[in-house]
Design brief:
single chain, 5-stranded antiparallel beta sheet
C-alpha cells in the first residue's frame, strides 16, 4: 500500500467514523426525545382516562342531584313525606324512577327520614327502616347539615354514584333526604368508558380486595401490593405491556379517604406502532447518513489524494535524479498547491546544485589536465638537463685526460654525443 492509498483509507475511515458518531448521537437524542414524548403522551392518556371517569361520575351525580332536587320541590311529595305516607310517596316517585332508569341508567332512589333511617327504597319498596347513619357518612352529612351532597359512596346494596338533597315539609320542618344514583356496576362502566380505555373497580371485602365491576373483559391482573398502595391513597402506574398501560387510581369518599380503586387500561398499540416506526426511521436515517458520508468521504479522499499521488510520483522521479521531471499541481491555490510550489523550488535548487557540480567537475578536470601537461614538460626538461650534464661531464673528463697525456689522440666529440 502506497502513502496516497494509506492517506485515502485513513481519511475515508475518519470521515465515516465521524459521520457514524454524529448519526449515532442524533439517533440516540432522537430516540430519547421520542420515548420522552411517548412517555408523556402515555401519562397524559392515563390522566385523561382517569379524568374522563371522574368527570362522568360527577356528571352522573349532578344528574341524580338535579333530578331529586326537582322532585323535592314538589308539593305533593313534601306533603306525603310529612304524613309519612309510604304508598303515596312511592306512587309519586316510581314513575319518575322508571323513566330515569330507562333513559339515563339511574338504578337507585331512596328517601331517608330525619334520623337517617331508610323510609323508602323506590327500587325495593319492601326494604325500609334500617339505620344508615353508621355506614353512609355522606348521607348523614346531608341530613344533619341539611345540605346538598353528591359523590361516590358505599351503601347496603353496593358502591354507587349518588346525588342527594334535603327535603323540607310545607311548614319548614326538615323531613329527611331524597337521593338518587347509579351503582358502579358493569353496565355503568360500559356506558361511561371512552374508546381505547377500559375500567375496573375494586373494593375492600374485609382484609381482601375484590373486583366489583368492569367495563368489559377482565384486565391484566395487578399485583396485590400495588392495589394496597392504591388503597393507601397512592396513584400507581404499572409497567406497560405490549398492548395496554395500567394504572391504579384511588376513588375518594366525602372526606378524601380512598373508598375504592379504579384500575384503568389505556390502549398503547398506537404508541407501540409509533415506537416501531420511529426505530425504523432512525435506522434508515443512520443507514442513509453512513452511505452518504461513505460516498462523500470517498470523493473527498479521491480529490485530495489524487494530486498527492501525482506529487509523490514527481518526488520519486526527482529522487532518481530525473531533474527534468515536471512538477504537477503548482497552479493550485490550496495547501496542495503550496506543497507543489515548495517542491518546484526544491527542484530548482537541485538543478542549480547539479550545474555547480558540473562546473566544479569541469574545473577539476581542467586543473588535472594542466597539471599533467606541466608534469610532462618538467620531466622532459629534467631529461634534457641530465643529458647535457652528462655531455659536459664527459667533455670535462676528456679535457682532463688530454691535459695529462697530450701525446695521445683523443676523439671529439665523444662517441656518445
Amino acid at each position: 500500500m502506497n502513502s496516497a492509498t494509506g492517506i485515502r483509507t485513513r481519511l475515508l475511515a475518519a470521515i465515516v467514523g465521524v459521520a457514524a458518531l454524529v448519526a449515532l448521537g442524533v439517533s440516540v437524542v432522537h430516540t430519547i426525545r421520542l420515548y420522552t414524548v411517548i412517555a408523556g403522551a402515555e401519562a397524559d392518556s392515563i390522566d385523561n382516562a382517569a379524568r374522563v371517569f371522574f368527570t362522568a361520575v360527577d356528571l352522573r351525580a349532578r344528574e341524580a342531584q338535579t333530578l331529586v332536587e326537582g322532585l323535592a320541590a314538589l308539593e305533593p311529595l313534601r306533603e306525603a313525606l310529612a304524613r309519612q305516607d309510604r304508598p303515596a310517596t312511592l306512587a309519586l316517585l316510581a314513575p319518575v324512577f322508571a323513566a330515569a332508569k330507562a333513559q339515563s341508567g339511574l338504578n337507585q332512589m331512596q328517601v331517608v327520614d330525619s334520623a337517617t333511617r331508610s323510609f323508602l327504597r323506590v327500587m325495593t319498596p319492601e326494604r325500609h327502616g334500617d339505620d344508615l347513619s353508621a355506614m353512609r357518612p355522606m348521607l348523614l352529612a346531608a341530613n344533619t347539615q341539611r345540605a346538598r351532597q353528591r359523590g361516590v359512596e358505599a351503601g347496603v346494596s353496593g358502591l354507587a354514584i349518588r346525588g342527594m338533597v334535603p327535603v323540607v315539609a310545607p311548614d319548614g320542618t326538615h323531613l329527611g333526604v331524597l337521593e338518587a344514583g347509579a351503582f358502579l356496576d358493569d353496565a355503568l362502566l360500559a356506558r361511561i368508558h371512552p374508546a381505547g380505555v377500559e375500567y375496573e373497580v375494586f373494593v375492600r371485602d374485609g382484609d381482601k380486595i375484590r373486583r366489583l365491576s368492569g367495563s368489559g373483559q377482565p384486565l391484566p391482573e395487578a399485583p396485590e401490593a400495588a392495589l394496597r398502595r392504591a388503597f393507601g391513597g397512592e396513584r400507581v402506574v404499572l409497567p406497560a405491556g405490549a398492548d395496554s398501560h395500567l394504572a391504579l387510581v384511588p376513588i375518594p369518599d366525602l372526606e378524601g379517604r380512598p373508598l375504592a380503586v379504579l384500575k384503568l387500561a389505556t390502549d398503547r398499540r398506537a404508541f407501540t406502532a409509533a415506537e416501531r416506526e420511529a426505530m425504523v426511521v432512525t435506522a434508515l436515517i443512520v443507514a442513509v447518513s453512513l452511505g452518504a458520508s461513505l460516498l462523500l468521504g470517498f470523493l473527498l479522499a479521491r480529490q485530495l489524494t489524487r494530486p498527492l499521488t501525482h506529487l509523490t510520483g514527481a518526488v520519486a522521479e526527482l529522487a532518481r535524479g530525473r531533474l527534468d521531471t515536471p512538477i504537477p499541481e503548482t497552479g493550485r491555490g490550496d495547501e496542495v498547491g503550496g506543497i507543489a510550489q515548495a517542491l518546484e523550488a526544491f527542484k530548482a535548487d537541485l538543478l542549480q546544485r547539479r550545474d555547480l557540480e558540473r562546473q566544479a567537475e569541469a574545473a577539476r578536470q581542467a586543473d588535472e589536465q594542466r597539471a599533467g601537461t606541466i608534469a610532462g614538460l618538467t620531466r622532459a626538461f629534467e631529461t634534457d638537463v641530465v643529458g647535457v650534464l652528462a655531455v659536459v661531464t664527459e667533455a670535462t673528463s676528456l679535457v682532463e685526460r688530454a691535459a695529462q697525456d697530450p701525446a695521445r689522440s683523443w676523439r671529439w666529440p665523444p662517441s656518445r654525443i
